[in-house]
Specification:
The complex is a heterodimer of chains A (127) and B (800).
Chain A lengths: L2 H23 L1 E4 L1 H6 L5 E7 L6 E2 L8 E7 L4 E6 L12 E9 L2 E10 L2 H4 L6
Chain B lengths: L10 H30 L5 H29 L6 H6 L6 H8 L3 H22 L4 H17 L4 E3 L2 E3 L7 H4 L28 H16 L1 H13 L6 H29 L10 H26 L3 H23 L17 H22 L15 H23 L1 H8 L3 E2 L4 H25 L8 H23 L5 H21 L11 H21 L2 E2 L22 E4 L4 E3 L2 E11 L2 E11 L5 E7 L2 E5 L3 E5 L1 E4 L3 E9 L8 E10 L4 E3 L4 E8 L12 E12 L4 E4 L2 E5 L2 E5 L1 E3 L4 E9 L4 E10 L4 E10 L2 H29 L1
Antiparallel strand pairs in B: 1-2, 4-24, 5-24, 6-7, 7-8, 8-9, 8-10, 10-11, 12-13, 13-24, 14-23, 15-16, 16-17, 17-18, 17-19, 19-20, 21-22, 22-23
The chains are: A alpha+beta (127), B alpha+beta (800).
């Protein structure tokens, strides 16, 4: 057999492996309920800040402890713990994407992405 | 309904710009078609004439668009949406240039501009390839200029014009019912604070020049397929491909440097989709260049060379589609606005994909391929394997980056991996090891046939590297065995290519491009390895206090609380937040670092000024500050500041009766009253009817420094007035509250500033040997440059 055929087969094999690995490592967008069912798996949860409940950040006491309550897209609510300072502009966020896993009753977020549509599309003239 | 006649608008510039867009679009169609017919009818030179004329009109109109848009931004004509959205009055001129490409329309314009410049170079140098190559390039120019049209065609809005008026974008806003609405639009939205950085002035033009150059090798391959030419395309294509590799590479690393210097994620690469999208075409192009060289030396692998070259440009278009169609949505921090052009972008992409595939398919049978089996003992074989590895590397990156596309196409629900870095490293690290080893092995071998002793050299260099690896492994303090492999591979690449470089140093430096570029690659890999494997977050509270009981796992505690003026120990440093100061819109936080040596004594100290912009639209936008040393960087940024700094509170008020020469003691300083000044300068004060003005000359000594202060006392309208003096560094305020002529004494009141609400939350990271990342890249770019000079020389000799 020609070496180029062997290379071709190898290449296809590696490509399949890359696809499998992508699929295996990919997280999914879930709600809090699904996250609670698989407490050791990391998920992306999309939702909004519950502005009625208090968020907590007291840097004098612990600069790496921030909690708030979030409502996911299905309407479930959960307390979220984030071991970092409160992200800038958190209050103005319209949508929040948190990445992390459920730990008992709390969702431990390792990443918070904020969507503030005002950033680029604030089409309001200030006078 | 009456038509409102709006006042004070500058419609001329918008009309000029918009007409220029339309002219540039039509003239690019004309030029593309004329060159196409020129190629079909080589004897009829009138096509050539028409094409050149159209192209010159096109170039002129592109310059007009740019000039009009810049004129509008420069003069703050906020009746234009683009100027209003991306600029503001307070911006200095160099940032106005960045406004130019903050928006999508401006960045397309930048691309159009470079492609036009490239066209101008090609019509002078491409000789007999001019017609087919320019036909392809102008086709791409047609697609790009259509993005700026902003004209409705059969109900579909084609492109988005940068000359759209504010009142037409926001038709419903009541303000636009008024004729003099412009007098109410006082200022624009301003430039995103993250882009207010010098690197943002130079990085986008470089990157877009890189993107624009990829069309040239593409056009040559298309032209060669069209003409059924096998060999002749290579010599003109190689220098262009190398220019593309160099510029795109420089653009990517500048983006990394900008991210490192001005973003607060702490690093130069985050595997963000936007970064990946520019990395992938670059890797494929490097693979393409290697395969072109194989073809040049051996006549093999022509098809792969062509496919990879075509793929490079197609991937640039795919990257454009990914980053500009809004499809990335939640998965990228770079949120580009969706201008509703995703359909148009997709058509743009498909035109060139279909063109490539169809031409390849038509010519497939006639393309030469080698019948005999490849010989393993040759440079070309291992170069080919290396190129395949680059392809695999890009495939893996683009696959994971495309997750949002799969979601759209297959209605899946996938999100990017939770630990993106681990996911990419798992693949890219072993690939990097193999590629680095191959740069050594393939370079030591020769094309076609090799003498037996080539393998001896390969083994010997590997042996030397294997001996050096553990030495450096322990010297750098690495701890993962896989890193030892990468270290070995990088050392191997550096050693072998350095040995190969030596003979070139005497005169034939022109031939050394490959060796130099590969050495740079090796250095870059070591830099990436050490700076990320040994990156250390040092802002960890070591005093043990202030630990939250609710908080059990301590490992990801990465931010430290710094009260103003209160030193804290952090790693080998004593850090103190000294004070803040305001420059333009930014607040700079002075943080003092004292480096301790092993005995706990202060070795040296320095100040860092991380800054934050409390932006009304973006919240706190933090910019890091970095102290650069040869062997490491100390990187610091402010992750949070008190939301509102109220009026400063002063406590511990005390009154002291003193005469000149007396000393006052407070908690943090001792103060000597030097004298009482009777000719104090009242100029800065509200001095109406000021009768007497006395100044108390104070010398304020803190532990390490002395400051001057002069509180003042006077009589105004028959009332005593006192002017305070504040010594911020000593956190002391002085008031001159009275005179006692009978005893020759005066009253000085001291009070201490309460700084408990004055703090910053800060993160600090030490990056060891990050200079190797920049240094390696620069060496690589020098290597590309040498290679470009050599290949241009070959091309010129061919032409003459």
């Amino acid at each position: 057999m020609k070496k180029s055929y062997i290379l071709g087969i190898l290449l296809i094999g590696i490509a399949i492996a890359a696809i499998v690995s992508m699929y295996g490592d990919a997280s999914t967008y879930e709600d809090f309920e699904a996250a609670a069912d698989h407490p050791n798996k990391e998920f992306h949860v999309v939702g909004t800040l519950n502005r009625e409940k208090e968020k907590y950040y007291n840097p004098q006491k612990d600069p790496n402890f921030f909690t708030f309550y979030m409502i996911d897209e299905r309407g479930n609510e959960s307390k979220v713990v984030y071991h970092n300072p409160e992200p800038a502009d958190f209050d103005r966020s319209e949508k929040i994407v948190i990445v992390g896993k459920m730990n008992g009753q709390e969702f431990e977020a390792s990443k918070i992405l904020l969507k503030c549509p005002s950033k680029y599309t604030d089409n309001q003239v200030k006078t | 309904m009456n038509e409102v006649v709006f006042l004070n608008e500058h419609l001329f510039w918008g009309n000029l710009g918009h007409s220029a867009v339309v002219v540039s679009f039509i003239s690019s169609i004309m030029a593309s078609l004329s060159w196409f017919f020129q190629e079909k009818n080589p004897l009829d030179k009138s096509w050539q004439k028409l094409a050149t004329w159209s192209f010159q009109v096109h170039s002129l109109s592109v310059l007009t668009i740019i000039f009009s848009l810049f004129y509008i931004i420069y003069n703050h004509y906020f009746e234009y949406h683009y100027a209003w959205q991306h600029s503001s009055r307070d911006l200095p001129v160099h940032f106005m240039i960045s406004c130019f490409w903050e928006g999508q329309e401006g960045s397309f314009l930048l691309w159009i501009f470079w492609q036009m410049v490239i066209g101008q170079i090609l019509i002078r140098t491409a000789k007999d390839w001019k017609a087919p190559v320019m036909a392809v390039i102008m086709l791409s120019q047609v697609a790009l200029t259509s993005m700026l049209l902003g004209i409705k065609v059969f109900g579909y809005k084609l492109g988005s014009s940068p000359f759209e008026l504010l009142r037409n974008v926001m038709v419903d806003a009541p303000i636009f019912k008024q004729a003099d609405y412009l007098s109410k639009v006082k200022d624009g939205n301003g430039l995103n604070p993250l882009l207010q950085n010098y690197w943002m002035v130079i990085h986008p033009p470089t990157l877009f020049f890189g993107f624009a150059t990829t069309v040239v090798p593409f056009a040559y391959v298309i032209a060669a397929l069209w003409r059924k030419s096998f060999d002749e395309w290579l010599k003109p294509t190689l220098p262009w491909a190398l220019v593309s590799v160099m510029v795109l590479g420089a653009g990517i690393i500048m983006g990394g440097f900008w991210a490192y210097e001005s973003l607060s994620f702490g690093g130069y690469w985050a595997w963000d989709p936007v970064e990946n999208a520019s990395l992938v075409p670059w890797l494929i192009l490097i693979a393409a260049v290697h395969v072109m060289l194989i073809y040049k030396s051996t006549g093999n692998s022509l098809i792969v060379a062509k496919v990879l070259t075509l793929a490079t440009f197609v991937l640039v278009l795919y990257a454009t589609f990914l980053t500009r169609s809004g499809i990335l949505g939640n998965s990228s921090v770079h949120s580009f606005t969706d201008l509703g052009m995703s359909g148009q972008l997709l058509v743009f992409l498909l035109i060139f994909v279909v063109l490539s595939i169809v031409l390849m398919a038509i010519r497939w049978k006639g393309l030469p391929r080698s019948a005999k089996d490849e010989d393993v003992y040759t440079r070309e074989f291992w170069m080919f394997i290396g190129s395949l590895l680059l392809v695999i590397s890009s495939f893996q990156v683009i696959l994971t980056t495309s997750i949002p596309v799969f979601n759209k196409v297959f209605s899946a629900n996938l999100a990017p991996p939770a630990d993106v870095i681990a996911h990419y490293n798992k693949w890219q690290l072993p690939i990097a090891v193999l590629i680095a080893i191959l740069t050594a092995v393939a370079q030591l071998l020769k094309y076609k046939k090799n003498p037996e002793n080539a393998w001896k050299k390969i083994a010997m260099h590997a042996g030397i590297s294997a001996v050096l690896t553990p030495v450096l492994y322990f010297a750098f303090g690495l701890e993962v065995w896989l890193y030892a492999l990468l270290l070995f591979a990088s050392i191997y690449a550096i050693i072998s290519n350095s040995v190969l470089l030596v003979p070139f140093l005497t005169g034939k430096i022109k031939l050394a491009g490959a060796s130099v570029a590969h050495i740079g690659f090796g250095v870059l890999l070591i830099g990436v390895l050490i700076s990320s494997a040994n990156k250390k977050v040092i802002s960890i509270n070591e005093t043990g206090q202030a630990l939250n009981p609710e908080f059990s796992s301590r490992e990801n505690v990465e931010n430290i609380f710094l009260e103003r003026g209160k030193p804290s120990k952090m790693g080998d440093y004593i850090i103190t937040y000294v004070k803040d100061s305001q420059h333009w819109v930014n607040t700079y936080y002075q943080v003092n670092y004292q480096k301790l040596n092993s005995k706990g004594e202060v070795d040296y100290s320095f100040n860092l000024y991380p800054n934050g912009q409390i932006n009304p639209k973006f919240g706190l936008v933090a910019n890091p500050d970095t102290r650069h040393y040869l062997s490491h960087d100390v990187f610091t940024y402010v992750s949070s500041v008190p939301s509102q700094k109220g009026e400063a509170k002063f406590v511990n008020k005390k009154e002291h009766l003193v005469k000149p020469g007396d000393t006052i003691y407070t908690n943090n300083a001792w103060i000597i009253l030097v004298g009482v000044n009777t000719n104090a300068n009242p100029e800065d004060l509200d001095a109406r009817n000021l009768k007497v003005l006395l100044g108390a000359e104070l010398k304020v000594h803190t532990l390490d420094k002395a400051y001057d202060a002069m509180p003042m006392y006077g009589v105004q309208d028959n009332q005593a007035v006192s002017y305070d003096a504040l010594v911020d560094e000593a956190k002391l305020k002085f008031s001159f509250t009275g005179v006692h002529p009978e005893s020759g004494k005066i009253s000085i009141e001291t009070s201490e500033k309460d700084s408990s609400g004055d703090f910053v939350i800060m993160k600090a990271i030490v990056f060891p040997w990050i200079n190797l990342v920049w240094g390696g890249t620069i060496i690589m770019i020098i290597g590309f440059m040498i290679a470009i000079i050599r290949r241009i020389g070959e091309f010129k000799r061919l032409a003459s």
